[in-house]
Fold ATP-binding cassette domain-containing protein.
Amino acid sequence: MNVLEVCSLEKKYKEKLAVKDISFSLTKGKCTALLGPNGAGKTTTLNMLAGLIKPTSGEIRSPLSKEKDIRTIIGYLPQYPSFFEWMSGEEYLIFQGEIAGISKKDVMKRGNKLLELVGLTEGKKRKIGQYSGGMKQRLGIAQAMIHQPKLLILDEPVSALDPFGRKEVLELLKKLKKETTILFSTHILNDAEQVCDDVLFLHSGNLVEQGSLEEVKHRHQTPQLIVCLERGSKKYLNSIQKRDWVKLANFEENTLFINVENIQSSRDKLFQIIAEEAWPVVKLETSNDSLEEVFMKVVK
């Protein structure tokens, strides 16, 4: 079941099209990463989904909402959240819950559960001004979930954090996948690869690829065998290049890079060649493209 459906969405600022006719859907219970470099249109897209800016054209709808205004089912954390730093974490969550129309009794109960979920139980009485960057981001995620949204939208949730803060938030996202549907944007593709189920590739306002992480990688990646040799010689490259199962082969220093169609069958054939020709192999590895490498291929 889809939580959100986006059809032919566009946003134009004067003569510039920031987002160009994009369509996609978000599946219930999945974590989707909106990926692209700075300036690709990620924040503009999320702001339209969250109801903060109006699209120039297109439609955003949710099968889970009977109302045309779907903001009630969405929790949102902007890229640069602001807090009342004189409040404690607990006070801030209660304040946000009451704004959302939740009774004080219910919001305190819900707030304590969320503080435990995001790992802030011990720090809930501390002033937000004393929080680290990672703690503030986790509190921001908690406030976005205070009204139990069907969809959690996070704009660059880890971009401003140090490595420790990033790890904290990424681990939290893995937990939250069990609680709600998530859409988050990032330009750090390695982070997305750790937590997301589906991906949306945005480039210069265009949606250039979408699908499950595994499907997208399968469509664009090139399986590769890497053979490290004790001593280098072009004869090994010549021996491999004529094989029909080899797409491309290169030799650099003492290492042979072999692009193939199928890793398993090609590896078996390569083992046979190595044994028959007595190659001085030091190490043999298999390699698949990372999400970042796939993105670069798609964009190019």
Q: What stands out?
A: The first strand starts at residue 2 and ends at 13. The mean pLDDT is 88.
